[in-house]
Amino acid sequence: MKLNGKIAIVTGASSGIGAGIARAFGAEGAVVIVNYMGSKDRADAVVDSIVAAGGKAVALQADMSKSADVVRLFDTVVADHGKVDVLVNNAGVAVFEMVTELTEDAFHKQFNLNVLGYFLAVREAVKHFGEAGGSIVNISSILSTHPSAGGSVYSATKGAVDNMTYGLARELGPRNIRVNAIMPGYTNTPATDGAFVGDLRDRLLAETPLGRVGEAEDIAPTAVFLASDDSHWISGESIRVTGGARGL
Fold first, then answer.
1. Where are the domains of the chain?
2. High-pLDDT (> 90) share of the chain, %
């Protein structure tokens, strides 16, 4: 198993891409901390699925945009498991609205979770990685380089994730901490339910060489690779996992 014995925190893991990554980590031998903000039932269901498959997991609540919650999350993990080996920054929010309708609340809501939340988690993770170092995987988006109409703020947060990934890789490399990002393409999740229909779906499929919309299970293997020792010489990279799509 590629992650045997590793303690892995996956934020925003109660559904979608985060849940897919959590399940894949559990199958590879990691002890998975399934973080959630408000969906305890869904987080518990992810934990149950990991345990039913023979893995180990626990659900822990924390709002990753709040420093006190992030500190509590990591302190609990270390108290219970003694260390942290892997952090997947996945918790995020998207508010799509044209700039003429932009509100400060929507702007700060996205940057507080999608960017500040990632930094807060990294800050705490590096305190608890051991001498062997660790792996940080940031979930970015294809929209970081190909924004869509109405998604400029969300895309700006993901552009920030790409840049922080490279900057933190430089900063943390001397401590043997690798930092990489995954840029998913158009992926079916509860957050996108009902979005990929009609003419938009036709356009997405036409722009995706592999001919379909992605699933969480398509993203998870890359996260396993980046979390494992197989990627020991990879850091500071943002990797597209898109079925070949470059964006609309």
1. 7-241
2. 88
